[in-house]
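$ ./design --mode recover --in tokens.txt
reading tokens...
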């Protein structure tokens, strides 16, 4: 289990990992925007982007019909992200 001392370190480790979320296989994508001169801060977004296999799952297809388009899950402010990190063995100390 990798122990990390910061949230940024944890995000670096989880970026690109393949996980199953609600029965849908996907890749965790971490995107960081540079510091804005206007607002004075940068932002980080974390998403679960379905793989080709995930897009074939019944749950994905059902949700796609409801939404009318392909979709991904935003995990940026979700309680799901720490649980996924724990499942991957990433421990914030």
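writing sequence...
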């Amino acid at each position: 289990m990798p122990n990390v001392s910061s949230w940024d370190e944890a995000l670096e480790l989880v970026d690109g990992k393949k996980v199953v979320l609600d029965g849908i296989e996907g890749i965790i994508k971490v995107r960081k925007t540079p510091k804005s001169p206007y607002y004075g801060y940068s932002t980080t977004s974390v998403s679960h982007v379905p793989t080709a296999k995930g897009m074939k799952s019944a749950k994905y297809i059902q949700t796609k019909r409801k939404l009318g388009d392909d979709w991904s899950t935003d995990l940026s402010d979700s309680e799901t992200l720490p649980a996924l990190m724990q499942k991957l063995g990433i421990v914030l100390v």
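exit 0
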